[in-house]
Amino acid sequence: MTVDTAALLDGATLRVSGLAALDPAEVRRIMVKYSFCRIRGLFGAAEIRAGLESLRRGFDPSLDNPVIGEAPGAVMKNFQKLAIGGTMQSWAYRPRFIRILYNPLWEADIYGLHGLFRKLAALRNRLQGHPEGYAIDTVDGGMWTAARVQHYPAGGGFLIPHRDTVISKVNSDAGIEQFYQILLPLTQKGVDFERGGGFVELEDGEGQRVYIEDNIEAGDVVMYDGRTVHGVADIDPHKRVNLQTMDGRVVMFASLYKDMSGDSRLYAEYDHMEREAKA
Ligand SMILES: [Fe+2]
């Protein structure tokens, strides 16, 4: 049975007037029903478009690091890498083509995005039941805010479908009952790119894909949880890749990461590691 995704997207969209007016129980209700949620009204279109322009100005393509090999703790500083292929220190083969720009809030605000990151982290804290400023500017209880941008380049940026089981487990180990992966898109399908985009697969039926950024408005927040199969379908495969630019799909994350800077293992895409392949 094919589901009407336009109706689903509308039903899963929560409209609020600001963070103080956001009821976490309402978000939970939508997550249970739809397995994803979109929140409209927390961020303005103008600040999102300004953020994308500011990122483009601050971005330096010459700073890309290799897929593997960074030092432990590297991502707790401003750090940029190109993640291409399936090689990583992980349990699963997880092909992807993503540029990741780590930009922790104690580092220089080189992209002019710290204001948006702080608001996004405050939303995460509200939804996960933490104090408003928890783990944003400091490491609190071994957790910190992995403020980062993911850039899926035009010309084939993608991420194979998977679940975020490790980051869910890290959060539950830290006593966080409700884990949500929260994204703030800086780009819009139909404006900044034409084809592909972030999707979730519905659990009922045949895993039908719902492109959760279709018809999105600048400023919308998107989220899913650790049980939700999600991925990114190839961004504008009909275009030639140009890694000197920020063309394609750009999203921001402010997830809680465990401080593993003393750990000997690598960080590489921590939240995309998992022990079990998709069932
Ligand atoms: Fe993921």
SSE topology sketch:
Blueprint: H1 5-11, E1 13-15, H2 24-34, E2 36-40, H3 45-58, E3 79-85, E4 96-102, H4 114-128, E5 143-153, E6 157-162, H5 165-173, E7 180-185, E8 197-201, E9 209-211, E10 221-225, E11 230-235, E12 248-258
Parallel strand pairs: 1-2
Antiparallel strand pairs: 2-10, 3-4, 4-5, 4-6, 5-12, 6-11, 7-10, 7-12, 8-9, 8-11
Fe (ii) ion is lined by residues 162, 164, 230, 271-272.
Task: Based on the model shown, name its key terms.
single chain; 279 residues; alpha+beta; 12 strands; binds fe (ii) ion
Structure in a nutshell:
Helices cover 20% and strands 27% of the residues. It contains five helices and twelve strands. The model is unreliable at 264-279 (pLDDT under 50).
Describe, in plain words, how this protein is organized in 3D.
- The chain is of the alpha+beta class and 279 residues long.
- Helices cover 20% and strands 27% of the residues.
- Strands 1, 2, 3, 4, 5, 6, 7, 8, 9, 10, 11 and 12 form a 12-stranded mixed β-sheet that branches.
- The two termini are 20 Å apart.
- The model is unreliable at 264-279 (pLDDT under 50).
- The structure holds fe (ii) ion.
- Fe (ii) ion binds at residues 162, 164, 230, 271-272.
